[in-house]
Amino acid sequence: MEFLTGNPFSTPVGQRIEHATSPTLQSEDWGLNMEICDIINETEDGAKDAVRAIKKRIVGNKNCREVMLALSVRRAGPR
């Protein structure tokens, strides 16, 4: 259960999610969101790491901007 511990923003996809959900962004960075999708699809642990990072941004967060951006990252990608 190693994946449940540690900083979810320490992985390559986690670092990009941290940046893509920064409250200092004026709007969604769709180029970065698509890069996140590519990492998820191209790496073995990408999806698991992305879920951890997005969950970290959403759960218990009172910053509506960060939550909105995290949900935008979540919506990016194929349906």
Automatic annotation (TrEMBL):
Residues 1-24 are annotated as: Disordered. It comes from the Eukaryota. Pfam families: VHS. One of its GO terms (cellular component) is endosome. Residues 20-79 form the VHS domain. InterPro entries: ENTH_VHS, VHS_dom. One of its GO terms (molecular function) is ubiquitin binding. One of its GO terms (biological process) is signal transduction. This is Target of myb1 membrane trafficking protein.
